[in-house]
Amino acid sequence: MINNLLSILVVSCDKYSDIWEVYIKLFNKYWPECKYERYLLTNKIETQIFGFRSIAIGDDISWSDNLKKGLEKIRSKYVLILIDDHFIVDKVNDEELNNILKYFYNIDGNYLRLYPYPRPIGEINKFMGSIPEGYLYRTSVISSVWKINVLYDILKEGENAWQFELNGSIRSDKYNGFYAIKNINILPTINGIIRGKWNKMAMKILENKGIIFNQINRPIMSNKEMIIYYYSLWRSKIFNFIPWKLRRRIREIFKLDLFGSSPNDLKNRY
Predict the structure, then answer these.
(1) Fewest 10 Å CB contacts: which of 57, 109, 240, 255?
(2) What is the dihedral of CA 205, 208, 212, 215, to 10 degrees?
(3) What is the DSSP string of 159-224?
(4) pLDDT tens across 148-196, in order?
(5) Is 68 helix (H, G, I), strand (E, B) or coil?
(6) What is the C-alpha end-to-end distance of the chain, expressed in Å?
(7) Which residues on neighbouring strands pair with residue 128, listed in sequence order?
(8) If we measure between CA atoms, which residue out of 215, 191, 205 comes closest to residue 269?
(9) Which of 4, 3, 19 is nearest to 197 (CA)?
(10) d(CA 13, CA 23)
(11) Pick from 98, 95, 96, 63: nearest CA to 78
(12) CB–CB of 86/189 below 8 Å?
């Protein structure tokens, strides 16, 4: 039976169509019990692939414009936003996830990040903590459940996903009810594509999960690019030692490019 309270939307675009089959194959392998409506955001390609229906929104405008158009086609109250190059690589505990979601619905939450990084502040229950106003990445989109009308309101035309995570966090301060998972990674994923190129380490993990890369239609990161990327992740961990109340202000004062402070590679995605 389909659950009508929540839908799943995998945010993508036609230029990433080469990874759709890999993404959906892993989704179905590690979350076979999923009973939610599943959608794939595309531009002009209309497809129905392994239980996912496309929402074709037309020409690429921006990440935020595309997402707003997609949300207009979804009729559930909540949406689980997933990113097409964050591949699920381990078993999803469907029962535990549904129990967490029930609690979230009961407290009329607006946002729930199903990824334990950055860590939430405070404690709601043994699974969840709150994300207060002023938090730098309050609207991180990775594996996030949103009340659709709240997400639609916070989105701003013309922004890419990275800009939305930064600027949308400021706009989100007018809403309470923002939460995140504390200690468990309920949707275990790995970032397979970095700035449009395959992550070498992710490819090895995916091969161990049964993915066969016979024909690769996009470039693979060089060793130099891999070093730079992992340096950016290391830099972000250093930044996270700064008290959370100061992070947003420091970024505004020094105009810091904190690519890597966010858990996803979204800066140059759209």
Answers:
(1) 255
(2) 30
(3) --HHHHHHHHHHHGGG---EEEE-S--SS-EEE-EETTEE-HHHHHHHHHTT---SS--S-B--HH
(4) 999 999 999 999 998 999 899 999 999 999 999 998 889 999 999 999 9
(5) helix
(6) 35
(7) 181
(8) 191
(9) 19
(10) 13
(11) 98
(12) yes
